[in-house]
Amino acid sequence: MASMLEFRTPGFNPYAVKYSPYYDSRIAVAASANYGIVGNGRVFCLGLSAAGIQIEKTFDTNDALYDLAWSEINENQLVVACGDGSLKMFDLGVDQFPIMNFHEHRRETFSVCWNPCTKDTFLSSSWDGTVKIWSPTRNASLKTLPIGCCTYSAAFNPKNPAIVSAVSSDSNLRIFDLRTPSSAKYHLTTMIPVHAPPSAGPVLPRLADGQTYAGAVPAEILTHDWNKYRDTVIATAGVDRLIRTFDIRNPTGGPLAVMAGHDYAVRRVAWSPHAPDILVSASYDMTVRLWSDGCMLPPLPENTIRSGAQVGLMNRHTEFATGVDWCLFGAGGWVASVGWDERVLLWDANTVLGR
Amino acid sequence: MGALDRLSALGSQLSGSAGGKARILEKNADDIVVTACLRTAITRGGKGQFKDTPAADLMAGALQGIIERSGINPALVEDICVGTVLAPGGGATEMRAASLVAGFPDTTAVRTLNRQCSSGLQACVDVANQIKTGMIEVGIGAGVESMSTQYGPGAVTEFSDLLESHPEAANCKVPMGVLSEAMAKDRGVSRADQDAFAAASFQKATKAQAEGLFKEEIMPLKVKFEDTKSGETKEIVVDRDDGVRAGVTAESLGKIRAAFAKDGSIHAGNASQVSDGAAAVLLMKRSTAERLGQTILGKFVAASIVGVAPLLMGLGPWKAIPKVFELTGITKEDVDIFEINEAFASQCLYCANELGIPQEKINPKGGAIAFGHPLGCTGARQVSTLLYELKRRNQKIGVTSMCIGTGMGMAAVWVAE
Fold first, then answer.
1. What is the mean predicted confidence (pLDDT) over A64-82?
2. What is the CATH number of the domain that holds A259?
3. B12 and A CB contact within 8 Å
4. The whole model's pTM is what?
5. Is residue A72 part of a domain?
6. Is the Cβ–Cβ distance between A152 and A125 less than 8 Å?
7. So what's the pLDDT on residue B62?
């Protein structure tokens, strides 16, 4: 793996990494002192050049940082999710201080996602059990979606700006449609118990290897991501070490595919922007793995759940791997991963195939 | 926000693990483990070798066995729970006395409970839960029944007008045999299938007895026995189940007349026997077992309790087993042995067929049809029958389950180590 680039974040343990949607040479990392348990946070804005990875800018915060999202309308701005419950927007042209501070969450903010369609809103999820939708120009949130328990990750649908998804510690994947009236359900349209087997059907479904899939016990869901090609498909993963894919049109149908292999909880999953069946995952087992969910293969018999295949393994991190993201540009396959080993690694996924 | 909260959230993300089989096979310090389990022989009610031995004496013997076999300091046992069904007053006084006789100090608390045929299992589960919550550190789940001395019409008081006026409530007192007969007819379990299942139970038990497979679980007891012919009372050592009959076949059972209806299918040969016996299970956390140098035989994983219609009492395992699978995330393929109590061949067979459990996984050493069903004892008895057999076969995961009078079912998952 000669082509791997490395950057160190001394004194800070990264939690998230994101490629800029505007430049193939710009990356941001959200990191925290003392593993995010107590202490400051720091945003690293990194530039790739012939000389390697170099710091373009850093911003310090008073509490740990757990996630970040690049602005989709301004190539110099990004938002970070902060341990004190706030979201802070930084501009690369403005030193030191955030240009906006959004503080409504009453506990740690764990995720932030910019609306990729309309580009005029972003959302956040928090340990306080809510998802909030914000305008970058207003200090107060536009909308609050109640979840009721620690919500580790929330995201916008990549094609439809009104559809929001969230996964939480109660083992559920929730889908909200902001076009529905805010009735008693606060836009909630679908709830998928991630651990559960399909509820319909007279018999339990089989996995491709012939084993019956009876589901599992509820477990915290730490991450999820929308497929970039099939806009009804979501991958989830978390404490039970499994990655599952679901089609939100069939909420009681159980998972489409199950991917097993990680030895500890999965912290982050990201679908490839270049292939409909490929996703990458980062786990507390210190590995980053590439998977194919098998959606390109011929269909399986009725009532069968596909076992996704691990197609690659990157094991250069020496501590928990916490963040991973795909570069949107180029021939496809460049991945950035971060871990508690205070390192940012950039590598070509094609070089780890077959492991 | 709180650093401690963040730390414990991270900790729980790490300690959470793969679902299903891999998860229950893990060995963690806070597992509830079994470090000794045993039973007395089970003997025929009214004429067997324990016919003159009261329940408390059986229990004292079993508890003594636990101390001897585990070598545990009795003062470390903080609570004993005894499942017993027929004892007047719940047997509370006698069982406390039995624990003192067995050698436990007065600091060891004792209680009894009654959940009918699952009392022994419920006792083990209650003690496991007490340990899990930190209420106690070491406890014994046990069960006993002397049907010879305590079986009879006195077991249920007369139903009030209020109970009688409610149809489903009134169904609670329909005798087991009558409702099982109706259920067998309703669910289409044929006499031939029941007899074949019952004969297999006898054959498996005969074979297991001949091979000495019950040796490890049975604690021999020395008791007084009155010979009804000579009238003379002597001391005997009871160390084998006397209800097991060799040479029973489906054909020989086919000749027995049905007991509950003229055209019925249930008879003495394909229903559980009326019996006497006791069983006990010593439970503690794995960390405690390691500190005390106890040998770990297996661990308790989870248990389920469900209700069904009183008249369909026999369906209990059919509903309880999937529920315990849901709680543990395992499937029937993951389970190596099912100990499902054979209250009646009809209900046991029906549940197994409905759940799609292969015959060779059910009661490999026979069941209550062959050696008896001392009501309160059975749930605790199944633990030793299961764990020793899993160990002998070098297998891991077992389920114990039973139907419960008045319409309930219980199931538990155990792992042998």
1. 97
2. 2.130.10.10
3. yes
4. 0.67
5. no
6. yes
7. 97
